Design the sequence.
């Protein structure tokens, strides 16, 4: 006789230990990490030419543009960047060769949200994959309520505006209304390359450009789409509780 | 005649004088009525405090000394009426802007008639006052501004029910005269079927005026359909029905030893009225129809309390009887006052926004008059039975009394008490919906920018006055209860002290106790607690202001705020009730369609028109009755007066024959 | 060259109220595709749609009057006393995507509902013109990320047909594998959303976890949780060796068992079933009248599945059961989806067990609909997906598409009339809509 309780008991504990423990390989597929040149060399010219979104420069990789298309893998790059790739500034997303990214410029610390943040999700033109990854944060594998990250249904209850998708003309006004409706102090998180740089849609008709042209962005989470682990990292950073650890 | 009696006489005469003055100058008429109301108030308070007032006396047709006088019972009702009239008269001075002065004349006449019928000690003048009141009110309704056909129909319905009421009251009075041999309002102690006949006729006759089920159409239709002037509506709905309550109380006070079924019937009719009134109020979209339905509910509550008292009296439960009577009196008072303020507010809204339709007011009068606003809030919340207002105290007492119905001996009355309790509780929820809707869609709604009406000066003060009284008698309930003890005593024919001990007690003047193991309520503590909470909230608010606050538009899921046609309608607010209660309300959707379906943006005039209608099934019954009456009358006319000369000659022949035979026999 | 998956008509097959139903109409009127549900065949008409079909085609191809916003359902204006518009969206957590619904109501009851799309219009199709096929594929993957396998498969098939390129059979098998995985994910996701709306929180968590495991399996096989970049020939992260395939088969067997148990529990739950039973009924007539596709159509009693009707390898060689219901309500749609999850597990089991060693050979592409113009159809999770691609010299010249969301919006708007507000989420989720693919 099947029962909900029996189902749940048999499946046992599914929840990830991240970020207390490093993320497991199952939680971090290749696409969870930005590409980096192998060894100490710079980015090969062939890779720069192969990149369809100009994320690669001879000097380094712009995580805020990389859509994980894997074309550069044939030219000496590998998905070996950090899982904790989120950053508080756009510049910090650009890595210089194999050297660690430049220390972020001194910046006013984010508002103190105590031990929990309430997140309001706004989709300004996503392909829905980012939305579903954010939704996945609630599933038993990630269960972000254990980290004090909650999703609200109204901007009036929110601390963090989580924006996914490339900002479109039609969503500009609703987005600004949502931002206006969130009480201060508040933080804006751009999740995925679409709001960071436009991704594959940069320059399309009806697309506005980077989110930072519309709103002040506090945290950038690269990825296409960012995996749940990437999102947790970014949201903890927004909450002022970032504890970077290397992935497994 | 004593001093208070002189004041009473002057007040009564003053109302008729107001009618006369009004014919010459309408504002002066209202001013005289205001003065007379103040005199009546003084006389009533004096009579309650000093045990009565005796005014002008005269010798009646049967050689009995009749007079204008106030005992505890009548003083209570003149007190309630005088407070109402002070407000309505002052209000009318600013409100009445009609071209003719007829409204002022009929207004004075109505007030005078009601004062007369309450204050006189003779059933004859009671009837004179009753009929004058009906005719004068008919005159007031005819002054409505609505479409003339509708106004005339509505006034006619009022008159028809009014005359039916007079008929039943007449029979009841005749019965009393037969039993006591006197036209004076004196105790009757005769057994047999006669008292029951008198009671039944009184219940129907006065019930018709109170607008209780199944005669509630007499209440809502004239007010809602004619869009009668608001000062008239307030007088009609507050004091006309109060006159009905007084009549019923007066008749019951002279009949002793009621059988238990009187109480059961009263309780049953009351419970049905409460439920129907609340239900229809919650789905009404008319700023005056809604309070009119609420009147049905409130008068139903009076009957519920009275019914419990009658059953308890027959059952020998003196403590419960006294408690229920206190509740009935309190309910009548609370309703008369609060309802006045609501009707005055409706008139205020109509004056400013030029509509009676809750759907189209949309907050246009918001913020235009803080005093009137506060008074309206107090009155509406009182009708919704919100603490610490008068309506809350009376509803609490009635529910407490209903809880005690388990003590009734006959199981049938226990059952009726149980059902009535459920009905009253359900109605309390429904009336809350109605009152929130009234307040929300008239005064609280956020108006569209630029869509604000200019307020009419001077209308807010009377509303605020009544609101303050409603708050005062709510908070001061333990003291007011002591004050009206003479009224209950006069009703029972034996003095009653408050605290009376047993079930009801008012210990230390701060609380009301419904039996020591039962409920306790302390109206004065509630505002203190509210004030304390308010102070804390205000403290936070003040601190928050210092920290900086921001006003942002309402969050509408990303859509711009308040586009026309995108705000909730008053109708939509209560559609849930329309759908849930469709078996009682006879809800049906009427859908008409014109043109073809539009697709793909191809322009086409296709529009569905959808109406969700509810029906008062009793109106259907009366409509059928009228149609049947019309058919019978028409048939008789055809048979008796066909317009044929031969038939008329036969009538003349028979008449002559009859006279000849009669004369010969004599 | 294989046989064309349609017959070419010599006259417009459906100018009248009966007969074949429009399945796709080019915006410029050069081509119209019909489904003949009576004979089970598709009909191609090289001309503009007429009659009833033209209404549907105009609805799918509608552009906004001002800006990019456009209603995507039929509109029948409703007036009446107390009737007002209840705007819902574009940012509402009930619908995670950005789109607005204007509900005409007198309170409580939905008299008319007009979905408005275009908030997320990223101008994708127009921007494809001039790009190479591999570059265009990057954008096509991101039309709707959770439907990427269907979109990429249809797009690539249309390109291959336009260019007359044959394609390695392995690629077709990989596409089938990806599509069926994604079908399982999407159907399970729909069930999770409805469980959430019905406050079945334990069921929601379990279903959510199952969906996550499908994503992890996708990541294990394609290196990306949404299989972006995984369906192009020579994808760098594809890991479909024998060991991975065996592991995948084992995982799928476990998930299938889990799903069986979950689904039994859901069907036993009165709160779950009651809430979707008789909600948003789309009967057979409405479904055909408004051109509904996929589970919506099959739940209304019309058996049509592109995997059978327009079969390409490997579907031609696999056993596929076609679930069908006839009530047309949300429950029927959810039951059809659940049955399809079972069918997809079965398909994947067959696929993986037949996939021994390397699959050699190449398959010829379908004949072009016109010179240089390919028309391809794929049964996406929510129904028939059509791509119409014109390619010249390896460069995209024009792309047109009609997604299952386009096709099902009218049926949703018509079916929800007369429902109450609380029916909305159950109705909306049961269709499996995506604003992303509607907006493009």
Sequence:
């Amino acid at each position: 006789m099947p029962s909900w309780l029996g189902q749940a008991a048999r499946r046992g504990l599914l929840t990830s230990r991240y970020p207390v423990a490093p993320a497991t390989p199952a939680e971090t597929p290749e696409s969870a990490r930005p590409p980096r040149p192998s060894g100490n060399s710079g980015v090969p010219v062939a890779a720069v030419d192969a990149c369809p979104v100009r994320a690669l420069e001879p000097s380094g990789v712009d995580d805020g543009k990389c859509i994980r298309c894997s074309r550069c893998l044939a030219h000496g790059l590998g998905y070996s960047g950090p899982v904790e790739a989120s950053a508080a500034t756009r510049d910090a997303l650009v890595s210089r060769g194999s050297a660690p990214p430049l220390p972020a410029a001194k910046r006013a610390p984010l508002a103190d949200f105590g031990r929990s943040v309430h997140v309001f999700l706004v989709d300004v033109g996503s392909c829905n994959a980012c939305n579903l990854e954010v939704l996945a944060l609630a599933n038993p594998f990630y269960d972000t309520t254990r980290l004090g990250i909650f999703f609200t249904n109204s901007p009036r209850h929110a601390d963090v505006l989580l924006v996914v998708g490339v900002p479109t003309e039609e969503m500009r006004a609703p987005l600004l209304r949502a931002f206006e409706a969130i009480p201060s102090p508040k933080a804006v998180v751009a999740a995925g390359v679409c709001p960071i740089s436009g991704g594959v849609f940069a320059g399309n008709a009806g697309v506005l450009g980077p989110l930072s042209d519309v709103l002040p962005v506090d945290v950038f989470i690269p990825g296409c789409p960012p995996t749940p682990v990437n999102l947790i990292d970014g949201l903890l950073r927004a909450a002022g509780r970032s504890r970077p650890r290397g992935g497994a | 005649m004593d001093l208070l009696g002189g004041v009473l006489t002057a007040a009564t005469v003053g109302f008729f004088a107001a009618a006369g003055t009004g014919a010459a100058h309408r504002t002066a008429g209202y001013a005289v009525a205001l003065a007379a109301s103040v005199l009546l108030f003084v006389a009533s308070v004096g009579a309650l405090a000093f045990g009565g007032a005796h005014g002008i006396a005269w010798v009646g047709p049967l050689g009995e000394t009749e007079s204008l006088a106030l005992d505890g019972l009548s003083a209570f009702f003149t007190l309630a009426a005088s407070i109402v009239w002070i407000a309505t008269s002052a209000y009318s001075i600013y409100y009445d802007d009609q071209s003719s002065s007829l409204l002022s004349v009929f207004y004075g006449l109505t007030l005078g008639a009601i004062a007369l019928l309450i204050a006189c000690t003779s059933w004859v003048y009671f009837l004179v006052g009753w009929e004058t009141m009906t005719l004068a009110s008919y005159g007031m309704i005819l002054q409505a501004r609505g479409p003339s056909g509708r106004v005339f129909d509505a006034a006619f319905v009022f008159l028809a029910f009014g005359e039916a009421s007079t008929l039943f009251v007449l029979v009841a009075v005749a019965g009393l005269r037969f039993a006591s041999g006197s036209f004076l309002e004196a105790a009757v102690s005769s057994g047999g079927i006669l008292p029951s006949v008198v009671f039944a006729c009184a219940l129907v006759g006065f019930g018709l005026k109170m607008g209780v089920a199944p005669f509630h159409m007499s209440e809502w239709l004239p007010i809602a359909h004619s869009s009668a002037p608001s000062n008239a509506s307030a007088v009609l709905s507050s004091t006309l029905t109060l006159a009905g309550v007084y009549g019923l109380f007066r008749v019951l006070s002279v009949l002793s030893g009621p059988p238990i079924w009187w109480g059961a019937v009263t309780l049953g009719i009351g419970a049905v009225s409460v439920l129907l009134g609340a239900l229809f109020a919650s789905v009404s979209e008319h700023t005056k129809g809604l309070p009119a339905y609420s009147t049905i509910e409130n008068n139903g509550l009076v009957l519920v309390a009275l019914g419990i008292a009658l059953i308890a009296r027959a059952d020998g439960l003196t403590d419960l009887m006294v408690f229920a009577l206190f509740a009935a009196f309190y309910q009548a008072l609370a309703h008369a006052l609060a309802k006045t303020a609501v009707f005055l507010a409706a008139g205020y809204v109509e004056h400013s926004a030029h509509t009676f339709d809750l759907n189209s007011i949309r907050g246009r009068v918001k913020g235009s008059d803080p005093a009137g606003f506060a008074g309206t809030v107090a009155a509406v919340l009182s009708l919704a039975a919100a603490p610490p207002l008068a309506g809350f105290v009376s509803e609490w007492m009635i529910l407490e009394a209903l809880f005690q119905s388990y003590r009734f001996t006959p199981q049938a009355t226990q059952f009726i008490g149980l059902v009535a309790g459920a009905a009253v509780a359900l109605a309390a929820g429904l009336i809350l919906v109605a009152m929130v809707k009234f307040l929300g869609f008239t005064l609280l709604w956020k108006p569209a920018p630029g869509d604000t009406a200019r307020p009419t000066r001077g209308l807010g003060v009377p509303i605020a006055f009544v609101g303050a009284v409603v708050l005062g008698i709510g908070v001061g309930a333990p003291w007011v209860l002591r004050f009206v003890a003479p009224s209950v005593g006069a009703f029972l024919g034996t003095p009653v002290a408050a605290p009376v001990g047993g079930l009801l007690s008012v210990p230390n003047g701060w609380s009301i106790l419904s039996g020591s193991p039962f409920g306790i309520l302390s109206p004065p503590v509630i505002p203190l607690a509210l004030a304390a909470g308010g102070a804390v909230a205000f403290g936070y608010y003040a601190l928050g202001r210092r920290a900086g606050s921001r006003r942002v538009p309402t969050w509408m899921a990303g859509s711009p705020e308040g586009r026309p046609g995108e705000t909730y309608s008053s109708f939509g607010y209560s559609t849930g009730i329309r759908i849930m209660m469709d078996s009682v309300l006879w809800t049906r959707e009427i859908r008409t369609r014109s043109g073809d379906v539009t697709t793909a943006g191809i322009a086409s005039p296709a529009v569905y028109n959808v109406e969700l209608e509810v029906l008062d099934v009793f109106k259907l019954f009366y409509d059928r009755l009228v149609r049947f009456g019309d058919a019978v009358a028409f048939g008789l006319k055809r048979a008796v007066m066909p317009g044929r000369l031969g038939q008329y000659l036969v009538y003349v022949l028979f008449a002559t024959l009859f006279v000849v035979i009669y004369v010969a026999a004599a | 060259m294989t046989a064309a998956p349609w017959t070419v008509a010599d006259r417009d097959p459906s100018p009248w109220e009966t007969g074949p139903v429009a399945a796709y109409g080019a915006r410029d009127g050069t081509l119209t595709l019909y489904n003949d549900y009576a004979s089970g065949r598709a009909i191609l008409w090289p001309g503009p749609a007429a009659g009833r079909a033209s209404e549907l085609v105009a609805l799918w191809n509608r552009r906004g009057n001002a800006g990019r916003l456009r209603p995507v359902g039929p509109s029948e204006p409703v007036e009446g006393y107390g009737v007002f518009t209840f705007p819902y969206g574009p940012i509402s957590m009930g619908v995670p995507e950005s789109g607005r619904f204007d509900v005409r109501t007198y309170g409580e009851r939905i008299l008319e509902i007009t979905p408005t799309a275009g908030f997320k219009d990223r101008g994708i199709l127009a921007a494809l013109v001039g790009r190479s096929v591999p570059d265009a594929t990057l954008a096509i993957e991101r039309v709707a990320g959770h439907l990427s396998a269907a979109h990429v498969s249809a797009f690539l098939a249309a390109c291959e047909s336009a260019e007359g390129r044959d394609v390695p059979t392995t690629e077709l098998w990989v596409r089938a594998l990806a599509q069926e995985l994604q079908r399982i994910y999407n159907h399970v996701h729909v069930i999770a959303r409805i469980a959430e709306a019905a406050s079945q929180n334990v069921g929601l968590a379990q279903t959510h976890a199952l969906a996550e495991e499908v994503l992890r399996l996708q990541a294990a096989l394609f290196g990306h949780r949404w299989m972006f970049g995984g369906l192009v020939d020579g994808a760098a992260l594809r890991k479909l060796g024998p060991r991975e395939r065996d592991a995948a088969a084992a995982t799928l067997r476990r998930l299938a068992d889990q799903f069986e148990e979950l689904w039994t529990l859901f069907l036993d739950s009165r709160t779950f079933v009651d809430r979707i039973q008789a909600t948003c009924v789309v009967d057979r007539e409405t479904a055909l009248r408004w051109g509904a596709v996929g589970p919506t159509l099959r739940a209304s009693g019309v058996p049509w599945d592109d995997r059978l009707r327009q079969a390409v390898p490997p579907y031609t060689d696999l056993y596929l059961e076609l679930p069908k219901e006839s009530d047309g309500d949300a429950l029927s749609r959810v039951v059809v989806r659940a049955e399809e999850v079972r069918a997809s597990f079965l398909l994947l089991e067959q696929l993986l067990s037949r996939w021994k060693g390397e699959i050699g050979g190449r398959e010829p592409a379908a004949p072009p609909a016109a010179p240089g113009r390919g028309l391809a159809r794929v049964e996406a999770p929510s129904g028939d997906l059509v791509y119409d691609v014109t390619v010249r010299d390896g460069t995209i010249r024009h792309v047109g598409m009609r997604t299952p969301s386009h096709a099902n919006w009218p049926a949703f708007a018509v079916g929800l009339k007369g429902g109450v507000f609380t029916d909305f989420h159950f109705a909306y989720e049961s269709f499996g809509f995506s604003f992303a693919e509607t907006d493009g």
